[in-house]
Design goal:
This protein is mainly alpha-helical and 36 residues long. The chain is built from two helices and no strands. α1 packs antiparallel against α2. The longest helix has 21 residues.
């Protein structure tokens, strides 16, 4: 169970890094509601 939580945190961090690299803050707003 802990592995699932860790994997989700890693995915979220990767998405945040990609958004920061792109420089678009709107992308993170579109991603968060889509996360399970």
């Amino acid at each position: 169970m802990h592995e699932l939580l860790v994997s989700k945190l890693i995915i979220i961090k990767i998405l945040e890094m990609l958004v920061k690299t792109s420089g678009s803050n709107k992308s993170i707003d579109n991603w968060q509601p889509g996360l399970p």
